[in-house]
Amino acid sequence: MWSIANFLVIRTRYSGYAAGAVVGANLGMPSITDVGWSTYGTLRHGMVILMIGSLTALGISLAYAVTDTILARLSHANGDADRKARRLQTQVRLLRRVVTSIIVVVAVSAILFTFPQVQALGAGLLASAGIIGIVAGVAAQSTLGNLFAGLQLAFSDALRIGDVVVVEGEWGRVEELSLVNVTIKIWDERRLVVPVANFTTTSFENWTKSGTAITAKVMMPLDWEVPIAELREEAGRLITASEYWDGRSWSCQVVDITENGEVMVRVVATAANTGDQWNIACEIREHLIGWLVEHYPQSLPRNRTEVVAAEDEDAFRAAAASAAIRRAERDAPGSREEVPEDA
């Protein structure tokens, strides 16, 4: 109860003062006999507009205070593993933006309809509402597309606030999901702002879609002289003793041989989340490089050149002479069959 009171004070501080002032001014407004009909009508119209605006702002502030209480409770359980809490948080944030937009549009419409000229125009507009709706839909096609894309993302559970994603080659965490854009906080503190519609039309990587467990992979190009058994034993000793390993599985295998003659060794280890995955990958890479340099420096990648020479100088000269004789016999004029000119 105290938590919601705190949010109410924060959210309704200014809107509450404004609404109270407008209500007080409305109660203290002079009568028609004191100021005259024209002045009274102007004051009354102005007070109606102020009343609609202030009460709308107060209502939105109250709604935000209530939803802030819900979001605060969800954030306490909003670890990477709590997918339900993050999904609810995303949906609450998006729904309150939609509701706020609708309330603002209704309030602005109510203020406009307090003017007699707009009321007369409204009757004509209602008669051609179908045409206006088509024109408005075409003009706002991009905006409406982003709106429905945001709702689709939130309620299809394809993307949630706090998800770890890879978009356009950048790794980061979803920080905000609005009706127009998705803000991704990249690992180096930059923000990548992507239109919501991009997430429904193009593919992206979501590393926490079904859970936070992930596998770290380290690729090491080494020489053929690398002792695989000893390397595997050292990798296992390191991984099983690491605080970042979640205890599920690990492996060390030769997975390929490159065109440059290098042996590709892949070391994999499971981790509980993306942070531990990055840390254990760096730990494996740093430790095995140092271990190979200290114990098996011949295993480090290197370029090899093989020089093939004749075993005996006389044999080399004989082979050269034989090749020269064969070339001479092939090029001699008598070695070819003469063809008559009148043939």
Automatic annotation (TrEMBL):
Alphabetic keyword roster: Membrane, Transmembrane, Transmembrane helix
Residue ranges annotated for the Mechanosensitive ion channel MscS domain, each copy included: 143-209
Stored InterPro entries: LSM_dom_sf, MscS_beta-dom_sf, MscS_channel_2nd
Cellular compartment(s): Membrane
Phosphoprotein in keyword set: no
Transmembrane stretches, start-end: 47-66, 94-115, 121-140
Official protein name in the record: Mechanosensitive ion channel
